[in-house]
Fold this sequence. Notes:
By secondary structure, the chain is mainly alpha-helical. It has 17 helices and three strands.
Amino acid sequence: MTRVSAEPDVKELNLTLDLCLRIGEMLLANGAGAADVTATMGAVAHHLGLRTTDIDVTFTQVSMGYQYDPASPSLLMIRQVKQRDIDYEDLTQVDHLVRDLLHGKLDLYLARTRMASIVSVGHPVPRWAVTIATGVMCAAVALFLGGDLAVIAIAFLAAACIDRVQLRMSRRRLPNFYMQVAGGVVATLFAVGAAASGLDVDPSLVVTANIIMLLAGIGFMGALQDALSGFYVTAGARIIEALLATSGIIAGVSGGLSLGTLMGVDVGQLEPGRSGWQDLSLLMVGSALCAAAFAFASYSPKRALVPIALVAAGAAAIFRVVDEADLGRTWAAAFAAFAIGLVAYAVAGRVRVPPLVVVVPAIVPLLPGLSIYRGLSLMAADNGASTSAGLLAMVTAASVAIALASGVILGEYVAQPVKREARRLEQRLSGPRLVGVFRARSKR
Length: 444
């Protein structure tokens, strides 16, 4: 294990900082919260002998500084977070690396070698399988939103096409906003095609089911989670990204409808974000399929897919029961999220993945992406009534997102073991951890 002596090896200090930054970059790029990233980097640095590091995490970069001698210049290293392709297999491997390092199974050089292997190895499943999983996810959402077989089939095909179009655009390094516009156009053209073919389907439900994969509910909830943990700059950036992505969908849907009008196809009155609800059994089945498909598309380890599906089904059932008890959608989301946070720690430990890998897919069916889309769409309409309805939808989306984020965090607080040393460190570094170890260990 590396120790900092009175005359430290600057080369080794640089290697230590670089390892911490690479770990932080990988966690942040794969959806970890700023608090988890900061705490994990601090724990690794503490274990490797750096006791007073300065760590800063923003939406696009991580930085770390260390001053080993007050009379010498401090060391400062920065890494940019350029790619944000969610890969829960990589996240899981980095989490295992950190745990092995803090338990003394790895030293600095072995950890760096293993980190390089994680970064260099490609995705564990072929890309076409991710496209199919994305289609299954949207089809499952169409199922529990009340769609019939035609809507479910259209949602599957539309999601697969959107995924391939966005994949080609991403390889050309186009900004995410244009990818969202293209996705909205493709989704709406499927609704236009269904209307032109004479299928007896609700165009509003078709469009709603088709754009599910584009909605920014995860980003919005992640922003509020960062805000709750005190990272307001990162939270603000995430909110702007979510709103910009949703604006791209609105522009794409509008463009698709305009193309349909030019082709002489009338889809009728389109009510943005409208959806129905199926009975409890279909809601649970659809939520389970949606969560498992999202987890698979995010490269989650296969051993976690069935537990994630079961957690999502249970959360959906809790949501429906509380909602039907007239407690409101916000409290329904809060109770469901609390249940997810409560069981995610135990489930994640059993299948050997970070709790984040269980929490995010399980919470996907409950995300307020449709409310965000509906709110921005209505606010863009040119009349006072639509603007008021849009503001109400946005407030609803915000309240649901806050309920989901706070419910998960509270569930983690209750679920995690309470030990004096762990509690002291958690209070100093962050709240309950969705990624990373419980406490920093130093080998004596």
